[in-house]
Fold this sequence. Notes:
Blueprint: H1 5-24, E1 34-38, E2 44-47, E3 63-66, E4 71-73, H2 82-91, E5 97-100, H3 104-112, H4 121-127, E6 133-134, H5 143-152, E7 159-162, E8 166-171, H6 174-197, H7 205-217
Parallel strand pairs: 6-7
Antiparallel strand pairs: 1-2, 1-5, 2-3, 3-4, 5-8, 7-8
Amino acid sequence: MREHEAAVRALRKTVADLHTELTRYDLVTWTAGNVSARVPGADLMVIKPSGVSYDDLGPESMVVTDLHGELVEGDFAPSSDTAAHAYVYRHMPEVGGVVHTHSSYATAWAARGEPIPCVLTMIADEFGGDIPVGPFAMIGDDSIGRGIVETLRENRSSAVLMRSHGPFTVGRDARAAVKAAVMLEDVAKTVHFAYQLGTPEAIDRASVDRLHERYQNVYGQ
């Protein structure tokens, strides 16, 4: 742990700051939701504590656990979703950040158990196709994590709608996972509105592939 003190200190601040993005974009209510980040080069992660108000979150209130969810450092109990985050990190080494929200529109799709179809270029760009639904799983152990991993391994999506629960997003780091959560809620809302007007047409697979490739590897600076 001591050799990773600087990285943990930096990630405590990063993860605390990223939680303000969840409230800024109205992705969470009360104390629900969480952001975590893998500590590079260590079997550790930084995550939000359980049941602490967003107004009271700061770097000092973030907790550090190992990748089995056991508390390593911190004054609070870790999030109730810690086991799920830890399972993702253990089984998806490319993932550096995990986010869970109960954002309204994405969670409505999860409640229906229905994937969000790839009917928008923004869905193709960020998620590479339909946004998939994961299985129903109980909170508290790694069941949710298993469902996330099993679902995302069969997709290139950075988001999964866990049935009757809500969305989880992953990224190369915590900021990328938060960005995916923000974009997920935006497209979930837009596609919901589109269905009120009729049945939107899915984008063909070849176009989805081209859009995803461009956005992931060409777009931006």
